[in-house]
Design goal:
Helix content: 40-55%
CATH topology of the largest domain: Rossmann fold
CATH class of the largest domain: Alpha Beta
Number of helices: 11
CATH architecture of the largest domain: 3-Layer(aba) Sandwich
Strand order of the largest sheet: 3-2-1-4-5-6-7-8
Order of helices and strands: EHEHEEHEHEEHEHHHHHH
Number of strands: 8
CATH superfamily of the largest domain: NAD(P)-binding Rossmann-like Domain
Largest sheet: 8 strands, mixed
Distance between the termini: 36 Å
Strand content: 5-15%
Length: 272
């Protein structure tokens, strides 16, 4: 489905993730007059985006014809927001939520509709390189096509039939960019301890991680494990480091615990 065929779209919550999606939609062909940004306290970036693209910026979607309602608000406030905007949801309205942890049943009850899709994008959506997990158990094929067109504007989309997978998606890819950024911090700190100054250490760490990511992207058909092996000479320097990282108490069990903690927190948010 083409974005030019979709709308009107009301985006509730014009923060970083909401604006990342909006930028992708406009760039992908969604007519500006079919997009409404809704935020009672919009930041400077939202005001600038609306002015630059001729998009309406309103405190709420009340009174706006809405064929697609996208909820991009914090999970801590989503139930209050849904209570306020419920009147705009009709039988013609498809709802997409990117609020972490909020289950389909909560969205359906909060907005009095079953046409809801729960999604979890991640922050690389800001540069069109995100990945989004999505699940909608009571939507039509056309609804899914509309959602897919909107979500694809920010990167890849993975659909699931089991809603529990979305909590796991949140833990892996939703929160995952922060794990990578922390890896850069940790690598830079290790570099400083080897005698590099702050600027040198961070330049080495950032370039190493972004370069490795670019290689991973370029070698799409090569498993990450093989790329690791390609860098590792027997009994060489990389092998010495990997002996530490791949030890029984190394990176894998730490990553397992981190992802499990994030998944459990997503589930807790859904029960709150």
């Amino acid at each position: 489905m083409n974005l030019s065929e979709i709308g009107p779209v009301a985006l509730v919550g014009a923060g970083k993730m909401g604006l990342a999606l909006a930028r992708g939609w406009i760039a992908g062909g969604l007519p500006p007059d079919r997009l409404v940004l809704c935020d009672p306290k919009p930041g400077e970036a939202a005001v600038q985006f609306a002015a630059e693209h001729g998009v309406r910026l309103l405190p709420s979607p009340l009174g706006v014809l809405t064929h697609v309602l996208v909820l991009a608000v914090k999970p801590q406030v989503i139930y209050d927001v849904m209570a306020e905007i419920r009147p705009v949801v009709g039988s013609y309205t498809l709802v997409l939520s990117i609020a972490a942890g909020i289950p389909l049943v909560g969205l359906s009850e909060g907005l009095q509709t079953e046409r809801v899709i729960r999604t979890m994008p991640n922050t690389p959506a800001q540069v069109g390189r995100g990945i989004t997990g999505a699940v909608g158990l009571a939507v039509s094929d056309e609804d899914r096509a509309v959602a897919n067109a909107l979500l694809s504007a920010a990167g890849q989309v993975m659909w699931f039939d089991d809603e529990r997978k979305i909590d796991a998606v949140t833990a892996v890819s939703g929160s995952g960019p922060a794990y990578v950024f922390y890896l850069v911090e940790a690598l830079a700190e290790a570099a400083r301890k080897q005698g590099f100054d702050d600027e040198q250490a961070m330049q080495l760490a950032r370039a190493t991680v972004t370069g490795a990511a670019a290689l991973l992207e370029a070698e799409k058909d090569t498993p990450a494990s093989q790329l690791r092996i390609n860098v590792t000479s027997p009994k060489g320097t990389t092998a010495a480091a990997l002996d530490v990282l791949m030890a029984p108490d190394g990176l894998q069990p730490l990553m397992d615990r981190a992802v499990d903690a994030a998944r459990r927190r997503s589930e807790e948010l859904g029960r709150a």
